[in-house]
Write a structure and sequence with these properties.
homotetramer, 410 residues, alpha+beta, Four Helix Bundle (Hemerythrin (Met), subunit A), paralog of FGE (formylglycine-generating enzyme), three-stranded antiparallel beta sheet, 12 strands, 30% helix
Chain lengths: 410, 410, 410, 410
């Protein structure tokens, strides 16, 4: 659901919908599943549940209810993620050591905090913070899925998170191109509705004429790249990318094994027509070079997406239907299936200024070394994305549902 | 219980007693507790339960029951520890990724294997292998306790495995010395009863006159060493030990924090009269140098212990009483409380020859780089140790219940 | 000298001037000095001399003189830097193992190649390649100086490369601001004269109004930042930068020690009025945040520099005067003293396309993870820089003469 | 020469002979050759020259000549190796950064210290320290050769230290066995003559009957082991050894390449009859297992060697002939060619006590984690070794001239 809260009942309802989805996502997991951490980039499912709750407890309840007693004096240390202004915290690589608290204790924590939020929904000055907390939780919903996928992929038994339903992707034809004549246009978030601070200020950008592919690169096309020696041809790769390839003798996207790929439903036969996913920026760039095209800039993507329905193709919906996901299936439209690597480095927009205090650490401090991804993925909650959304990861990271849409100059 | 099996009912009874103790030890743990792995040296509790079962399944059921069907075709890959002859296996540092199988599934595995063992107790030619399997499981019972202690110590909440009972250690007086006049004596296992291959062959050793302390070094004495700058005086340390100290700015035994220490009952006030534990070989050696003594050799220790009751001071008994442990309390006698570092490198005895096949990998291949420890600890199952027992760890390892008994020349 | 070669005598003269400067720069070094490699980022002086010669031998003599015999069949393996298309090569971290060939043998190599170049100066189709080789060599001249500075800084004796002359920097007053009204302007190389491929194509950029400081940040100002706890305040730093600070407990620019700094003349008292140098991107960004300003974009810097004399303030001149450098002294103008970190990631300009073949690896493949620096430094050869020049380094690198010029929005 | 100094002229003569040999060994090296450090285990040749001089300057001149002025106040920091009691020192891995002082400056240092030693040869109370200093320098002579061999092996040009002369090894027949009946015998240094502290006290040892091979294992035999899959059969290896093999995909001794090996004379065809060398303890142990034998203990080796001429087969003689080495050639006798790995851990002898002060750090503090090697090698100076000599290295180290002599039980 798109979070467009109205003070009072509307906000309360949205709050509970978002919170329920998190719990529904954890339903298939055991306490043990929800405890393990498969790499430093990932966090345990239990941690996601608790951290998103800590956000509300800290920035809403503690700061705005005089009578609020912390659920536990020890837990804030455990469940602060990276907010330096909130003091010392548990080291990220240690999150997988937390067999305690148990998943059920974390659920109690959530219930206690949810209940304590009740008097705050009617206070207009808190709407912005509550919205931020809900959008924050939606981001962790997606991470929760990609993190558990990674954890399960490390288990030689290849367990399934859920038996995924859904049919094959529609046949992917040749690429069609959507053209843009160039000129000056506005990008960045404007108008009403929630947006993260990094999406603004809205500002003018000068474009040269370009074209954007009307679909993502598919598994079939990627297999051609592999077959053609793409992972062995240094000339196709950025220098850092080539080091990355050689360092671990990489030769395919994450989760590929022969003709299979690992999914949230376990190991499955790969669907040739579906979009390729779990690729790094380096791989996306090398493929584009091989194909004779390039990656779009973040602004090129955004200017083409303005006005599109960002939820078309969204698979992660209300809790009851939450089992019909999360796997790329070849959506129409620019959004959906996979976050799309752009050529743009994640940097501040002109006149960007981070908020004061801990909340100001939300986005700004990550503005070095990462690349912008646009769109949304099969694991993005409904209502969470928009054209101005700027997702960002390091160029070697690929455990998110990342994919590739080609661009070219006109 | 000391394992002295008689073919048939006696063997069966011992088998089930040992197997029950393992399960009793895991009773306080959740599935999540039993899943996490806090370092490469340690293994998850669940893994210990399954691996000891794999031993019986592989070397008894698979090899000696034609009609036996493996519980799972995939599990042997997961639960082989280090037997190269048994083929490829799951990497040790990955054991903490196994949220599946669940603890309950592992319990089912145990029940299935236990039942399938039934026809084998009556076959005399298998007694030796079954004994080996039971002694093997006893070793893992101790590891299970030290591994979960380590895992819980990494949790900032400091959870207790069990609320430990038991009073304070008796007052530790000055050291008394047990003297040995030197000469030739026999060491190594001889006669009947089970022993590991590394305890033999029994052979003659020439001794110079020496004396052995009648008790272990205590926490109070160790605190004096710390207070006196023991961890800052390079001259007391072996060169490797000094590097080890500086590398992580070490300044106390593992699990010390101010006046407390971490125990299986959580953080507790340190008992000054109790034996110091969780020290490395380097620390033991530095302390002995500081105190003006030395570590005993493994043979010195053994020759003094011959004839002593190895179970005196044993805390890890039958399942019903299993909660009255595992913490050093100042036992009389040479055994008990802590495994005692000796100056002896872990090397083969004269004419030692490892057995053929996978079982031959049990001990011999570890004979480099490690030091021998003698005695038993508060976490050693009753009946498991003896004077000829040779425990061994790397000099920097200290997550076992390791301690120190001084020696001197006469 | 600015390289504006004319086919024939003019080109020959420039060739020899550039080549002579390299040799002059190595004159103060012993064979041993020229052999050591202090980190992977740096190369031995001897290697720089040989690699720049390999460039001419490979791309000019081998490819364009049928009768040319390689100086050695083994050396191309040693002195290829990163050209994948030229085949396998010696690993970069191993360069410091090359005590052979000796510095004198490398000088012979240079003489032999220089002589063999003679017939090529008159061939118009080779002018571009020769120009590229000379600009390439100029880049290595600067690296040679920063690399030997780094190597000498690791020697506890603190040797001087040259006794540096020159007086103190002029008094640095308050910052003046040069304003730009915004609008559309052209950036990138256009017109005649040499430029690297990454400086083009020239293209339009849209600016918002901004102002650029009229001088670099000084040592005095940086000392205030240090004094004010700049290196201890997480809120000032990018997240990657804060990790970088904590990882090695950094608390000052590279080469600072109390009130001194290490220079090519050894340890010297720090000049408060001189520009601060040897700072990382992370430090530059944190300082700007602390000061209430920001880094300029590469385009902001460039548009202000268009038309300025890029050689004003240049210290690295002809061989005879080469001893009057290389230390920031507070030049007027935008160029000189220090390469200036910009906020811009090093990415391809619109419609950029790398050349074919090995020479195409010159710049394009480095376009990820690095930041653009503009200007020139006290170690940049005369005639090497220009407004469109794009230097680039990783954000943590600081062994180059890097500095900081503030910007702000209008 | 065996160092058996007589106070006065005899001692002076021996001093100068030893000191001259060091300089002769460095004669073929350039300043650059003498500067590089190819791994942390190794040191630059220049460093060896200076460190051995520092030993005399510190423990003789500084401590025993009131009027002595240090050659440099800074150099002791650079050239102390590991004597904690002598204060802080330059980090070992940084030794390769010392392009300054130059080799010639180090030679001046040697000359200055040698001259200043003059009045000390007549003082009887200093004979022991001077002897220690000379034996210490002899150890570094051997290290200097093995270190420069390692450094040159890293250079793709494969430079020769010296064009080595000498013919092929004599044909190696089947192994003959020298038998020992067992019983009690004395080991350790006794009587007059120099010995290191770790060789004593002399003490009784009890032997079981055994036999020792009358020659070392040859290259031909080792090639059979390789051919037979020795490096691929886990069952032959110690567990630590197998990890070591797999970690770097090892498949032959250090310096083997096809049918060649790297020598101090560069790459040469391998002599099948010569003793295999540059093997780790792990390799020696695996070979012995493969061959059906075992390594000797240090005491077995010593008791057989008592009374033998330790210099038979010595190649490293007086400076004028110093070019006829250092390569294993198949000596008769127990000494010579290669240091021989024993099964014995390097531990203190009964009643061993290190000397007080810095000199006490010479041997004792290394008594953990290492294995004893007996004999001498083709790079051991004449007069340096003896039956009681205990050399020691870590089990993975193999850049010394290490080899293997088999043993078996009787």
């Amino acid at each position: 659901m798109r979070i467009e809260p109205v003070v009072g009942a509307g906000l309360r309802e949205q709050f509970h919908e978002v919170r329920r989805l998190s719990e529904a996502l954890v339903a298939p997991l055991s306490d043990a599943d929800a405890t393990i951490q498969s790499m430093t980039d990932a966090s345990p499912a239990k941690w996601h549940l608790a951290h998103t709750t800590w956000f509300f407890e800290t920035f809403l309840l503690r700061d705005h209810r005089d009578d609020y007693q912390l659920f536990s004096d020890d837990w804030p240390f455990l469940f602060n993620s990276y907010y330096e202004a909130e003091g010392p915290r548990h080291a990220r690589p240690e999150r997988g050591m937390l067999s305690r608290p148990s998943l059920d204790e974390v659920r109690d924590y959530r219930a206690r905090v949810d209940a304590a939020m009740e008097p705050l929904f009617g206070r207009p000055e808190l709407v912005g913070l509550i919205e931020l907390g809900l959008n924050h939780e939606q981001q962790h919903q997606e991470l929760l899925l990609t993190d558990i996928k990674h954890a399960f992929s490390r288990n030689p038994l290849g367990p399934a998170y859920r038996e995924a339903g859904g049919g094959a992707a529609p046949s992917a034809d040749g690429i069609g191109w959507r053209e843009h004549p160039g000129g000056i246009a506005q990008v960045g978030h404007g108008g009403n509705g929630f947006a993260f601070d990094n999406e603004g200020p809205r500002h003018r950008v000068l474009f040269e004429p370009f074209a954007l592919a009307d679909r993502l690169v598919t598994n079939r096309e990627w297999a051609d790249f592999v077959e053609d020696g793409g992972y062995r041809a240094a000339s196709l790769w950025l220098s850092d990318g080539w080091s990355w390839v050689k360092q671990d003798s990489r030769e395919a996207p994450l989760y590929w094994r022969d003709d299979e790929e690992f999914t949230l439903g376990g190991w499955r036969s790969r669907d040739d027509d579906a979009p390729v996913t779990h690729i790094s920026y380096y791989e996306a760039d090398a493929y584009a070079t091989w194909a004779g095209y390039r990656l779009p800039t973040e602004h090129e993507w955004e200017v083409m997406a303005q006005g599109e329905d960002a939820d078309e193709g969204c698979q992660l919906d209300d809790p009851e239907e939450a089992d019909s996901f999360a796997h790329p299936r070849g959506s129409a439209g620019l959004f959906g299936d996979c976050w799309q690597w752009t050529r743009s480095a994640y940097l501040p927009y002109p006149r960007f200024r981070a908020a004061d205090g801990a909340v100001g650490e939300y986005n700004g401090k990550f503005m070095s070394g990462q690349s912008v991804l646009k769109g949304a993925s099969c694991a993005t909650p409904r209502g969470h994305s928009r054209a101005s959304y700027r997702n960002f990861f390091y160029p070697q990271q690929r455990w998110q549902f990342t994919g590739l849409r080609l661009a070219r100059d006109l």
